What does this fold into?
Amino acid sequence: MYKTVGEALDLVEKLKSSVFDARNVEVVVCPPFTSLYAVGKAIEGSHIALGAQGIFWKTQGAYTSEIAPVMLKDVGCKYVIIGHSETRGRFGVPEPELKPHLSYFSETDDTVNLKVNAAFDADLIPIVCVGETSNERQARRTDEIIARQIEVGLNLIATEQAASMVIAYEPVWAIGTGDVCEADEANRVCGVIRSVVRRMFGAIAANAVRIQYGGSVKPDNAEDLLHRQEIDGALVGGASLKAEDFTAIVKAAKA
It folds into this structure.
């Protein structure tokens, strides 16, 4: 929940000039809903694609405050983030006043699946987020949690759809906590994700699916992460709010 329309436009104008030569890297920006149309117009003709931060699974109806897939397509979206840890109510360090209200963020593996199927029906590419909390990690349940989120979240999609999508591993315990997911472990978990996709959809889909890492990616750790065999890209949080930081990460991917 950052950037007014004017601030978002200022950011993408800087990005257009700073990442114009990184054409072997797919760059996507996912501004708030209020900025989607304006940002979409601003990046037309560039190699930066537009994504949304969320979606509802119905095409229309009396669902006040929700956003239909066709609405995202209408403003030029190509991608949509689904199942982010924050929409699931899984925060690394929730603010004290937020703790009593975490049920407000009620995304589940089942609603992720509804949204993934709706996104594909609308010709949108889902960026599906998975990840474990600190308690789950300490209980050595990381692989189990990740596998379940994928198995339920990607239920009933076709093999070619699985091959075309993006899955982002964001360890909840490493977001805003001061704890760091080392590159070796991030690579290992991304390998677990690929193995689950292989079991569900076969080797072709497992090799084609893009698996990102999304836990506090910054200019100083991006190169190490992006050179790992199982990590195909980055889901960038705070560092995406500054053009110079995001550009540095894009250039690390280009390298």
Remarks:
- Strands lie at 27-29, 48-52, 79-82, 125-130, 166-169, 210-213, 233-234.
- The chain has a mean pLDDT of 95.
